[in-house]
Amino acid sequence: LESGSVATWQQALACSASLPEHNRGPDDLAVLPYTSGTTGLPKGCMHPHRTLMHNAVASVLWGTSTSETVSLVVVPLFHITGMVTGMHAGIYGGSTIVLMPRWDRELAGRLISAWRVTHWTNIPTMVIDLLASPSFDQYDLTSLVNIGGGGAAMPQAVAQRLFDLFGLRFVEGYGLTETAAPSHSNPPDHPKQQCLGIPFMSTDARVVDPDTLQQLPVGEAGEILIHGPMVFDGYWKRPEATAAAFVELDGKRFFRSGDLGRVDEDGYFFITDRLKRMINASGFKVWPAEVEALMFKHPAIAEACVIATQDAYRGESVKAVVVLRADARGKTSEADILAWCREHMAVYKAPREVQFVDALPKSGSGKVMWRWLQEQEAARASAT
């Protein structure tokens, strides 16, 4: 892996040499996608052909896709989900791909209506944005039969609205760049809300104590470990990071996701949050994703991101960065939001501060950049 060369796209197009002999196999390196960097510097993930092929084929089967399927592919192709479940699965299944170069809620509404899109894999923030469009009533989404995605939890209130309007159950999945997109997904015919789903095809997933690695009983939160044919080989030129990312249990090599979750009595997995994202308020553990999900039930809130803020007494306190719906701007105050939160969640979880913004910062793949907001808050606290 120390050798190799890089060619520009222009050089590749200009190349007139004869094709080399095809000598690549399932274990040879295929792509080197980089992690999103939401919990640190991006790392290159070494994916051989076998990991990508497994999830491309499995995604077609899981989503009951056929050559008649019309998919709206808006998750960027540089993102593992867009590449594998959008591009690779679409090509493998011979389906129609409606490709959007970047997210635009009005264009998405027009494309779904015009092309009679049947399948749409997305980031939940896209659905939230489309439902909030003032032109929403003009779009025809009745062709959709399968809608789902991952990257962030779909707020229950938004999922319920989708079901009430169109009878659509949002099928959530879960995976990382390291797992070539899905390592878990909800069965399309029996999804649970705000749930990662069950382990994907041929996958062994467990919830363990992060320190002892002992498997935990049903309902108890711990770190999610993943073993399966879609798990990457390691990080590019990062042997220490690779060694830290894997553990061996029962003779199997498990990837440590860094995500905290639990499994229910039916075998469905639920995420609590990133281990690194926990807020420690006077010794109470506050998981931002849980607070965000509750805040989405407020009728004036379009989006929310919860971060930690320094507190002289509690150590850390909860702060919410909020985007209000267009019709609520100027009518809803910070005091209104704070009072509502104290009424609808445990006191130690309720935000002590609300900051209104026009939009939340998002990565190229549509994920809210909570780490950037957290760093901005830390810089502000240091300055004061």
Notes on the structure:
With 384 residues, the chain is α/β, with parallel strands linked by helices. The protein contains 10 helices and 20 strands. Strand 6, helix 6 and strand 7 form a beta-alpha-beta unit. The model has no long low-confidence stretch (mean pLDDT 91).
Helix content: 25-40%
- List the helices and strands in order: HEEHEHEHEHEHEEEEEEHEEEEEHEEHEH
By helix and strand content, what is the structural category? alpha/beta
The residue-averaged pLDDT reads 91
- What share of the residues does DSSP label as strand, in percent? 25-35%
Major sheet summary line: 7 strands, mixed
Unreliable stretches, pLDDT < 50, 5 or more residues?
none
Number of strands: 20
* Rg from Cα: 22 Å
Query: Helix tally?
Result: 10
**Which strand order does the major sheet show?**
4-3-5-6-7-8-9
Q: Based on CA inertia axes, which overall geometry fits?
A: globular
